[in-house]
From TrEMBL:
GO molecular function list: L-arginine transmembrane transporter activity
Signal peptide residue numbers: none
Skewed-composition ranges (Low complexity): 591-602
Pfam families in UniProt: AA_permease_2, AA_permease_C
Transmembrane segment boundaries: 21-46, 58-78, 90-111, 159-176, 185-203, 246-267, 279-306, 326-354, 375-396, 402-421, 474-494, 506-525, 537-558, 564-584
Organism of this sequence: Chrysochloris asiatica (Cape golden mole)
Gene behind the chain: LOC102830378
Assigned protein family: Belongs to the amino acid-polyamine-organocation (APC) superfamily. Cationic amino acid transporter (CAT) (TC 2.A.3.3) family.
Domain named Cationic amino acid transporter C-terminal: residues: 537-587
Segments for region (Disordered): 590-613
Protein name according to UniProt: Cationic amino acid transporter 3-like
């Protein structure tokens, strides 16, 4: 049946034929890639914006909670990295668990996220450099080559951003080890400069700035003779905007940790992926947390939070404490952060495209690997050219929120996949339904004549297999229902929280019932037997942690605007045209609907060969 094609899955235990990608990346390379992708220029700006307008000094709590929420997603990626050392990240993880259609949706949105991320970071790099030299580039181009199409095209064609993306595209095409070396250099310089900022803040900081009172506000207002530049000051103390400010600050800070998942796309290029991927994911998130926590602490200690200059908080802070030359150090760090972030966005983009093309869901030519450099050269060149053109011509501010949808969707899919897959019986064979895998293997093996104790053992084994199969089916259905219930709960919390807090009987009753059912289904899943396969890393406290991760991601997705969702719908329509017009007919997993030609040949494996240029 046609609908069965939408849920066909890749065998989790399949050992793909040699892909042609170079296995050259060490754990240090992966950590540098993850930190560089995550710790972008936002660390130089975001802390000031959130501290001044949203959370005050309590921004440090926001970063702590955001890091803990991110670590939940990181744990899920780490387990899959230890279980499936292949390129593709969340796309591949979805493919082996929930089927082809959802895998395509996840991969298609990851492509959008990384393309927009690459183009926007390139324009930010160009703007930062232009600002350092007095905005001469933008003034010259805007005067001569102005593009008068508001909300669609940029104010002027950005030749600098175009050249930068094409330059890094060439670097990525040269080889994974070469791009990893450049990433390590930029990331190392960035970490050194951030460490200098943190140390400076603790040396020149004043703990009194974390416990400001009304007298401090009055003195500031008297000195400025105006309140217009200060905005709402809050109520003073360490938490001037209350608990609500911490929550809103946490939601903003969460997106500062986006980027670590690029590590999961290096499965075929890491030397020891089963170990290095989970280790580097956890280390990257922890290092980024230390930097964000330290910079936000230093900034709010150096000056009162309400006096922070949002557009360039750190240079202004150093100017206030009398260390004006330090602002040039901050500028260098910002450019290094943008450079490593740009590479961190482009690297996973090419690997996701390569993995989808290799599976036949995108055009097969994009899976070509260069024989000498051992990189996915066609995926690199095509994605680099598209991102360069977007950075060159388009206004990206209205599209940046689309990256949030792709990221949160991938986090949710991976969390759901870990939750379901841990309770499945035999993940080495897939016949369209993971819970049928063990039954297929059991029924396909000829049974010799048995007698006495052997017959009894066979019956006992068959009974256990059937029980485990039923258990896997229970988990799959329960987890699917839980996702729907969590979506309803998030909808209530985002749209009708006021009515719920006011004690409205309808919303209160519905919320209580939802919590009871969610708790009951969680207990049911937790009582099922888990897959005992030994892995280097496994998510602890199943099924609670993946469910909390899904809840967090869905809640944040519902905070996005209707315009963002409308643009997401347009992008998905384009994707479905490609999938139903090409991918569904060229998918290599269609061979899984046929029996294997020999016992030594894994289903869907014989055609998985890389095309060498």
């Amino acid at each position: 049946m046609q609908w069965q094609k939408l849920i066909r899955r890749r065998p989790l235990g399949t050992n793909k034929t040699k892909s042609g990608l170079a296995s050259c990346l060490t754990t240090l390379d992966l950590v540098a890639l993850g930190v560089g992708s995550t710790l972008g220029a936002g660390v130089y700006v975001l802390a000031g914006e959130v501290a001044r307008e949203i959370a005050g000094p309590a921004i440090v709590i926001g970063f702590l909670v955001a890091a803990l929420c991110t670590m939940l997603a990181g744990f899920c990626f780490a387990e899959f990295g230890a279980r499936v050392p292949c390129s593709g990240s969340a796309y591949l993880y979805s493919y082996v668990t929930v089927g082809e259609l959802w895998a395509f949706v996840t991969g298609w949105n990851l492509i959008l996220s990384h393309i927009i991320g690459t183009a926007s970071v390139a324009r930010a790099w160009s703007a930062t450099f232009d600002g350092l030299i007095g905005n001469h580039i933008s003034q010259a181009l805007q005067g001569r080559l102005s593009l008068n199409v508001p909300h669609f095209l940029a104010k002027y064609p950005d030749f600098f951003a175009l050249s930068l993306v094409l330059l890094l595209t060439g670097l990525l095409a040269l080889g994974a080890s070469e791009s990893a070396m450049v990433t390590k250099v930029f990331t190392g310089v960035n970490l050194l400069i951030l460490s200098f900022i943190i140390l400076s803040g603790f040396i020149k900081g004043d703990l009194h700035n974390w416990k400001l009172g009304e007298l401090d506000y009055n003195q500031s207002l008297t000195g400025l003779n105006t309140t217009s530049s200060l905005g709402p000051l809050g109520s003073g103390g360490f938490v001037p905007f209350g608990f609500d400010g911490i929550l809103r600050g946490t939601a903003t800070c969460f997106f500062a940790f986006v980027g670590f998942d690029c590590i999961a796309t290096t499965g075929e290029e890491a030397r020891n992926p089963h170990r290095s991927i989970p280790v580097s994911i956890v280390l990257s998130i922890f290092i980024c947390f230390l930097m964000y926590f330290g910079v936000s602490s230093a900034l709010t200690l150096m000056m009162p939070y309400y006096q922070i200059y949002s557009e360039s908080p750190l240079p202004d802070a150093f100017l206030r404490i009398g260390w004006a030359p330090a602002r040039y150090v901050v500028a260098i760090g910002s450019l290094c952060a943008l450079s490593s972030s740009l590479l961190g966005a482009m690297f996973p983009l090419t690997r996701v495209i390569y993995s989808m093309a290799e599976d036949g869901l995108l055009f097969r030519g994009l899976a070509r690997i260069h024989a000498r450099t051992q990189t996915p050269v066609m995926a690199t060149l095509v994605s680099g050219i598209i991102a360069a053109l977007m950075a060159f011509l388009f206004e990206l501010s209205d599209l940046v929120d689309l990256t949030s949808i792709g990221t949160l969707l991938s986090y949710s899919m991976v969390a759901f996949s870990v939750l379901v897959l841990r309770y499945q019986p035999d993940h080495k064979v897939s016949k369209g339904d993971p819970v049928a895998a063990g039954m297929f293997e059991m029924s396909s093996v000829p049974k010799p004549l048995e007698s006495g104790a052997e017959t009894e053992r066979s019956r006992s084994c068959s009974t256990n297999i059937v029980c485990v199969l039923k258990s896997g089916h229970i988990v799959y259905i329960s987890a699917s229902v839980l996702v729907i219930l969590l979506m309803v709960l998030c909808l209530i919390l985002t749209q009708w929280l006021g009515r719920l807090l006011s004690g409205d009987p309808v919303y209160t009753t519905v919320t209580v019932l939802l919590l009871v059912v969610i708790t009951g289904l969680t207990v049911i899943i937790g009582r099922q037997p888990q897959d005992p396969t030994a892995l280097y890393f496994k998510v602890p406290a199943l099924p609670v942690l993946p469910l909390v991760s899904i809840f967090t991601n869905v809640y944040l997705m519902m905070q996005l605007t209707s315009g963002t969702w409308a643009r997401f719908g347009v992008w998905m329509m384009i994707g479905f045209v490609i999938y139903f017009g090409y991918g569904i007919r060229h998918s290599l997993e269609k061979s899984s609907q046929q029996p294997p030609t020999s016992s030594s040949q894994t289903i869907g494996e014989k055609n998985r060969k890389a095309e060498l240029v």
